[in-house]
Each structure stands twice: as C-alpha cells, then as structure tokens.
Amino acid sequence: MIPTLTKTDFERRRTQAELRDWVDNLHRSFSHTIEGKRAVRLKKGDLVKEFMEEIWPLALFADAFCRGSSDVQFQPAIGNQSYDARLFEASTHRVLHHLQITQSFDGDQNHLRMLHLDEHGRAPGTGPKLKKDKTSGHVQETWPEAVCHEHLLAQTFEAIRTAVQGKSRMRYESDTSLIVEIEDHHIHSESDRRTLDDFARSTLVPVAARFATLYFVSDRERLAIKYEIHAGCASL
Which domain holds residue 83? Predict the structure, then answer.
C-alpha cells in the first residue's frame, strides 16, 4: 500500500511549517513499505510524480526563504495553468507571487538510476549512460567510474541551464518567479559555489529574463540561492 494523495489535499494553503510537516509525514508514510519506496523512486501512483517534482521543491524553497514565517501561505496548483504554486499573504489572502517549479535532472537517466537502485541496490552517479534491456525490461547493471571534477561541474551547470531554458519559453504573470531544484552532489567547495554563481549571473539570469526572480534550492538542502532579475518586482 502507498499513501493516498488527492488534489484537494495538494492544493490546500499551508504555512512553511505546515507544508514541511505535511511533506515529511508523506515521506515517512511512503518509506514504511517496499511498495511506497518504489512508488517514490519511480514516481508511480496518483499524484506521486507531482509530489516529487513540484511539492518537494516547493517545500525546500519555503524552508530556505520563509522558515518560521506564518505571514505567508503556499498553495500548490495541479493542472495546466501558467504557475505551479502561489504565495499568499496570510492575513489578506492576497496573491504575492506566482511560482514556476522545475528540476535540473536528466529525467530519463534519473528514472533509470532509480530503476537501477530498485533492482541492484545502488544508483551510480557516474559512469556510462544507463540502458534498459528491451527483452527483459531490466536496467543493465553499471558501476560508477572516476570522472574529472570539472567535467562533473560542467555537466551539473549544463543541466541547470537546460532546465531554466525549458521554462523560459512560455509567458507568465509578471510576478512569476522560477524555482529550480538542483543536484548538489558535485558542488562541494566554496570555489565550486563561486563558479556556480558566476555561471548563473553570466548565463542563467539572461536566459530567465521572463521571470521576476530565479531561485536555486538543492536536493540535499545544502544550497539556497536567489537572483533578482526585475528590480521592480518584490521578492522574498
């Protein structure tokens, strides 16, 4: 059995603390069974994909930029509207910001990594591209390889650029900000962070010109970075 997720529960307004409590409780519920763990890894089941790709990054964003605040509420939106969530002023219910959310992961390879974890007990972060055997449907077992750190950083930055560029092709409300959940596995030192900052300012901010603000949050909660793009728009 896996937890039951509903659109009504997803779209309930919550403060930062309420959102994180809800997300953590769901993670615990999924972790109690093999079926639940597999559902999260492979994003299988009703709204599990939306939970992992939109709600979890939103919770990371709320923790990083609104921790302890009860003045604002977050409301995810499930569907095809021009935003993935809205930020409300709690006292007046006024919309403060529209939020777009994305992840800088290679979707196909990340899915195969999770299949590899499910089948072989580990998810290699380096090495050749993973492949699924067409006959058996299983992922061929692969072992990680030593890779130059600069090459891994370049791959990480390119994945972020692809994610930002992909979200920058549409038109949004003028107060829309973009949240990008990034992998920080290869961003270790202060030098790496400075390199990311230089890359963001020189390459990503111009690409994200449609947005009011660009936010990075990391999947392991080690990084949270904000770039204001339009000075006339209020940000957190």
Answer: 7-103+149-228
